[in-house]
């Protein structure tokens, strides 16, 4: 269960104060696949960073399974990112000189898994995201954009996180690969009870999520998804 | 992939840059190791010199002019006086004889009689501690050192080859130095290096035993137990010693009473070797000894040239140590700058690692290990450079610091007459300083290299820690926001 309470993030830009996230509150049940849509610069990525403890809010709090992130020191926030969060970045942000399997193994190494275990799990995950086994040992810079995105998703799943935060996961992909990624995220949410929050411009993806939010001028509103009612907690 | 494997991989990410960094590091580390090797070699030599002759004073008759004589001989009474001076731990008397091959001496005497030239000549090559004219005795031994061009030219210059122009001159024969010693030391106070046989036992009693230099024994086909004669008296070879030089090994040692009996001067000494109980007391004891013996009776010397040589070596040691530290610091600075550059270059990657849960210590360790990989590569190449260059660097340092200090000691320089000078360049306080300095061998021992590399790794860790700590300050959102 993720509770976002009156979250505020402000930036100074010269004399102006910008509020990309302004008093945002919502709750997500475990296993929910949700999306945030909005114009470029509307604060979607900032909100994602706050939820993933990459950034600290100016006000408000994020509570994950009853634990307030605002109260945690940096070392505990690192542990939270390692254990509970899986990031999928728009630019993939994989380590270019490492192979696909090494990239997936990284979070497991930080979590202290034995080498044999993390190697096996990394291979399993890469198979789950349907990366050709012949490309498991290939360096990242020798993989296509779609293949890199699959590796990035596999890396996000490495430590079986409670929450996956995906920033434009299909933004750099062709339609066919994008569809596959959408299917993959949906099945993860269904089969692994993983909460997935996706920031996207992709209407198709947004329409396939359980809940859809719109961020406009820092304010978050929930929109009805086709065939579903707006959740009461939004 | 472990942190170590990732660090090794990162070190080779940009092979051209890695090669350049390793090359620069190797020069700095090689220089540091070479300086360390030179420092250790010179330090060991200084220690050796101080241990062997650093506390030795030599007493000669005042006004002595080597084998040319001059002054009054020293006596047993003066030896007792010297022994009573505070801080003197030992006094060893010596009596120096000059031996000439009996056959060569007879031929030369006969020739001198024919040509009317005075003998024996050819002595200017001898420079030694004897303050009195050393008695010349005959022996069955043949000198192990040939007169050579210098010896014969000198003989001619002294008029000992005759001037008839038609008479065939006898082959020039260099004399052999025989020294009576009151203890098992050479005439510089240094313990004899007996390589075969044994010493003479009681050096205060007359005996028919003798110690021969290795080359002299070889020249005369003598081994332990062989006999030879001095003034028709038979002596047995008790042991062979190695003085380290050809001239030093062209010598005979007998007990002091034996030499005094042979010379017909019982109770007289050519010189005294006085050992002081510590380096700190040498200067004061020298003054006290000079005062006790009288300036008109004896000259007390400390081997000034050796002191200067040791001082020069100390200076070389200091310079090499400073250069070692400087080169080490340079290596550390190179690593620091390279790692700072790498951290700046990989800010985004560090941000990503933090975003996926890498602790600061893991990221810092990765950069430290990467620096150590570069240091290890630099050390490997640097050690190879040092093993080839350390000898040359040490020699260059020593020669540039001792050119003004390697003057010869007392007595005749000996260069023109047969080279070397008494006692034949054994490394004593009378003229062997330059040889001492040149005998410093800077070999890159594994221990020294290992110590040096450990220091390099220490510096590399320090150099890498600063950039590693910088990584802790990188906030993932700052580098990822750029997306």
Automatic annotation (TrEMBL), chain A:
<dbReference type="InterPro" id="IPR027417">
    <property type="entry name" value="P-loop_NTPase"/>
</dbReference>
<dbReference type="InterPro" id="IPR003439">
    <property type="entry name" value="ABC_transporter-like_ATP-bd"/>
</dbReference>
<dbReference type="GO" id="GO:0005524">
    <property type="term" value="F:ATP binding"/>
</dbReference>
<dbReference type="InterPro" id="IPR003593">
    <property type="entry name" value="AAA+_ATPase"/>
</dbReference>
<keyword id="KW-0067">ATP-binding</keyword>
<comment type="similarity">
    <text>Belongs to the ABC transporter superfamily.</text>
</comment>
<dbReference type="Pfam" id="PF00005">
    <property type="entry name" value="ABC_tran"/>
</dbReference>
<feature type="domain" description="ABC transporter">
    <location>
        <begin position="2"/>
        <end position="233"/>
    </location>
</feature>
<dbReference type="InterPro" id="IPR017871">
    <property type="entry name" value="ABC_transporter-like_CS"/>
</dbReference>
<dbReference type="InterPro" id="IPR017911">
    <property type="entry name" value="MacB-like_ATP-bd"/>
</dbReference>
<protein>
    <submittedName>
        <fullName>Macrolide ABC transporter ATP-binding protein</fullName>
    </submittedName>
</protein>
<keyword id="KW-0813">Transport</keyword>
<keyword id="KW-0547">Nucleotide-binding</keyword>
UniProtKB/TrEMBL annotation, chain B:
<protein>
    <recommendedName>
        <fullName>ABC transport system permease protein</fullName>
    </recommendedName>
</protein>
<keyword id="KW-1133">Transmembrane helix</keyword>
<feature type="domain" description="ABC3 transporter permease C-terminal">
    <location>
        <begin position="322"/>
        <end position="402"/>
    </location>
</feature>
<dbReference type="InterPro" id="IPR025857">
    <property type="entry name" value="MacB_PCD"/>
</dbReference>
<feature type="transmembrane region" description="Helical">
    <location>
        <begin position="448"/>
        <end position="472"/>
    </location>
</feature>
<comment type="similarity">
    <text>Belongs to the ABC-4 integral membrane protein family.</text>
</comment>
<dbReference type="InterPro" id="IPR050250">
    <property type="entry name" value="Macrolide_Exporter_MacB"/>
</dbReference>
<keyword id="KW-0472">Membrane</keyword>
<feature type="domain" description="MacB-like periplasmic core">
    <location>
        <begin position="130"/>
        <end position="291"/>
    </location>
</feature>
<dbReference type="InterPro" id="IPR003838">
    <property type="entry name" value="ABC3_permease_C"/>
</dbReference>
<feature type="region of interest" description="Disordered">
    <location>
        <begin position="108"/>
        <end position="136"/>
    </location>
</feature>
<keyword id="KW-0812">Transmembrane</keyword>
<feature type="transmembrane region" description="Helical">
    <location>
        <begin position="363"/>
        <end position="389"/>
    </location>
</feature>
<feature type="region of interest" description="Disordered">
    <location>
        <begin position="151"/>
        <end position="172"/>
    </location>
</feature>
<feature type="transmembrane region" description="Helical">
    <location>
        <begin position="321"/>
        <end position="343"/>
    </location>
</feature>
<dbReference type="Pfam" id="PF12704">
    <property type="entry name" value="MacB_PCD"/>
</dbReference>
<feature type="compositionally biased region" description="Gly residues">
    <location>
        <begin position="116"/>
        <end position="131"/>
    </location>
</feature>
<dbReference type="Pfam" id="PF02687">
    <property type="entry name" value="FtsX"/>
</dbReference>
<keyword id="KW-1003">Cell membrane</keyword>
């Amino acid at each position: 269960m993720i509770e976002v309470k009156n979250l505020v993030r402000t930036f100074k830009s010269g004399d102006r104060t910008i509020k990309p996230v302004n008093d945002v509150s919502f709750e997500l049940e475990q296993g929910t696949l949700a999306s945030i849509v909005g114009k470029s610069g509307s604060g979607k990525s900032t909100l994602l960073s706050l939820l993933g403890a990459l950034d600290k809010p100016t006000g408000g709090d994020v509570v994950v399974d009853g634990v307030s992130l605002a109260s945690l020191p940096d070392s505990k926030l690192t542990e939270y990112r390692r254990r509970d969060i899986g990031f999928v970045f728009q630019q993939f942000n994989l380590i270019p000189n490492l192979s696909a399997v090494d990239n997936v193994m990284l979070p497991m190494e930080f979590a202290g898994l034995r080498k044999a275990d993390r190697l096996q799990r990394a291979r399993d995950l890469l198979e789950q995201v349907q990366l050709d086994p012949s490309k498991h040992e290939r360096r990242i810079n020798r993989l296509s954009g779609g293949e890199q995105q699959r590796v990035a998703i596999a890396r996000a799943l490495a430590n079986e996180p409670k929450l996956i935060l995906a920033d434009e996961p299909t933004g750099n992909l062709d339609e066919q690969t994008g569809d596959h990624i959408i299917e993959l995220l949906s099945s993860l949410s269904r089969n692994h009870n993983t909460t997935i929050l996706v920031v996207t411009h992709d209407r198709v993806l947004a329409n396939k999520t359980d809940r859809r939010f719109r961020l406009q001028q820092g304010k978050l509103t929930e929109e009805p998804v086709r065939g579903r009612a707006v959740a009461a907690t939004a | 992939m472990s942190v170590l494997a990732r660090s090794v991989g990162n070190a080779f990410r940009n092979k051209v840059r890695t090669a350049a960094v390793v090359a620069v590091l190797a020069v700095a580390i090689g220089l540091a190791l070479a300086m360390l090797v030179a420092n250790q070699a010179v330090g060991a030599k200084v220690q050796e010199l101080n241990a062997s002759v650093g506390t030795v004073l030599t007493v000669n008759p005042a006004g002595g002019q080597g084998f040319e004589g001059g002054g009054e001989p020293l006596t047993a009474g003066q030896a007792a006086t010297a022994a009573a001076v505070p801080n003197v731990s030992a006094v060893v008397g010596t009596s120096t004889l000059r031996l000439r091959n009996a056959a060569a001496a007879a031929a030369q005497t006969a020739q001198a009689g024919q040509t009317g030239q005075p003998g024996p000549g050819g002595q200017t090559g001898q420079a030694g501690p004897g303050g009195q004219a050393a008695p010349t005795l005959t022996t069955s031994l043949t000198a192990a050192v040939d007169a050579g061009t210098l010896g014969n030219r000198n003989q001619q210059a002294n008029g000992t080859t005759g001037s008839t122009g038609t008479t065939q001159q006898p082959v020039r024969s260099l004399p052999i130095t025989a020294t009576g010693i009151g203890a098992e030391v050479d005439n510089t106070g240094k313990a004899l290096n007996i390589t075969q046989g044994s010493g003479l036992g009681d050096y205060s009693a007359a005996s028919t035993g003798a110690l021969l230099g290795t080359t002299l024994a070889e020249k005369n086909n003598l081994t332990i137990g062989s006999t030879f004669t001095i003034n028709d008296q038979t002596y047995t070879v008790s042991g062979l010693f190695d003085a380290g030089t050809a001239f030093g090994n062209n010598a005979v040692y007998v007990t002091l009473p034996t030499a005094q009996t042979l010379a017909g001067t019982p109770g007289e000494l050519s010189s005294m070797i006085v050992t002081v109980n510590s380096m700190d007391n040498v200067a004061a004891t020298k003054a006290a000894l000079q005062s006790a013996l009288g300036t008109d009776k004896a000259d007390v010397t400390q081997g000034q040239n050796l002191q200067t040589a040791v001082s020069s070596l100390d200076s070389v040691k200091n310079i090499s140590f400073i250069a070692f530290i400087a080169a080490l610091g340079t290596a550390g600075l190179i690593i620091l700058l390279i790692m700072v550059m790498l951290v700046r270059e990989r800010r985004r990657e560090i941000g990503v690692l933090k975003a996926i849960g890498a602790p600061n210590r893991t990221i810092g360790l990765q950069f430290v290990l990467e620096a150590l990989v570069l240091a290890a590569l630099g050390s490997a190449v640097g050690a190879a450079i040092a093993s080839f260059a350390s000898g040359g660097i040490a020699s260059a340092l020593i020669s540039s610091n001792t050119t003004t200090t390697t003057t010869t000691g007392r007595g005749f320089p000996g260069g023109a007459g047969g080279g070397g000078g008494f006692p034949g360049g054994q490394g004593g306080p009378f003229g062997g300083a330059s040889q001492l300095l040149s005998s410093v061998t800077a070999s890159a021992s594994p221990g020294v290299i290992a110590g040096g590399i450990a220091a390099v790794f220490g510096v590399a860790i320090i150099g890498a820690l600063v950039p590693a700590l910088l990584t802790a300050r990188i906030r993932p959102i700052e580098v990822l926001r750029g997306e």
